[in-house]
């Protein structure tokens, strides 16, 4: 699969020495959905702004579709559609006119059939003559996506696309993103919703304090870094883990009524059979067993925690 966005060692330092990006390198494949996860202030929006030419990098380079975003700005920018977090629409404009205007800004010839197709896909065609200040927040966000797609970009950036929308509309947005990808559009989204990345992304990038901690296939990331837990419910609560079981790294559950055992899903042996035998030998009586697979959220939180620990150790 070819690379459509190539980010090389991009740094962004604001006045006063505030470092927003600290040497980020990232390659985005044509036709994929990449989710960028990170806490507030991590650098997600800054990275997108640099790639889209909204902000200038302090150093480093970015190419989109082979075009340098600085030296070949017009060609690079014409390949990009950007949906920012903030809803920025002319309140007295109308849906169809807004998308026609956006298309014209990129020098594209009029194509009402294409715009009808986009508005229909986004469930906006029936609202094409509606004034924008009469639309709901979710509909306004759809208009923002229609604007971003009006000039037929190859790459679409969605910065927090589900922010401020209800659960039902969020699911509709997910379906829209999937449909856009099926037409060949490369999609990069930032999100605070872990389930959004888990539902949509082919690959996941985690960014914190201006550093890209990891970029990996979602399934591989969960396979490589995921853990599985087994919660062993006990018939009677205990105060401490018996000495004979200390080698298993067990955690005592709430109120001492359970033992929690974590193990690597990729390991050739889980050690569960031996553990259960030794629990029985220790005199404890099992009441129930529950297993739980690590989620993307667990992995995300773990990566951030590891990053903070490394940073603290370097001080």
Secondary structure elements and pairings:
Blueprint: E1 3-14, E2 18-29, E3 33-37, H1 44-51, E4 59-64, E5 67-68, H2 73-77, E6 80-83, H3 95-105, H4 112-121, H5 137-149, E7 155-159, H6 167-182, E8 186-191, H7 194-200, E9 203-208, E10 211-217, H8 218-225, E11 227-234, E12 251-252, E13 258-264, H9 272-281, E14 286-293, H10 296-314
Parallel strand pairs: 3-8, 3-9, 6-7, 7-8
Antiparallel strand pairs: 1-2, 1-4, 4-5, 9-10, 11-13, 11-14, 12-13
Helix pairs in contact: 3-5
User: Helical segment tally?
Assistant: 10
Integer count of domains = 2
How far apart the termini lie comes to 41 Å
The 3D shape can be described as elongated
CATH topology of the largest domain: Rossmann fold
Question: How helical, in percent, are the residues?
Answer: 25-40%
Beta percentage is 25-35%
**Which strand order does the major sheet show?**
6-7-8-3-9-10
Structural class: alpha/beta
Q: Any idea what the radius of gyration is?
A: 24 Å
List how many beta strands DSSP finds. 14
Average of per-residue pLDDT values: 86
Kindly report the name of the CATH homologous superfamily of the largest domain. P-loop containing nucleotide triphosphate hydrolases
CATH architecture of the largest domain: 3-Layer(aba) Sandwich
| Unreliable runs | none
The CATH class of the largest domain turns out to be Alpha Beta
Order of helices and strands: EEEHEEHEHHHEHEHEEHEEEHEH
Specify the biggest β-sheet: 6 strands, mixed
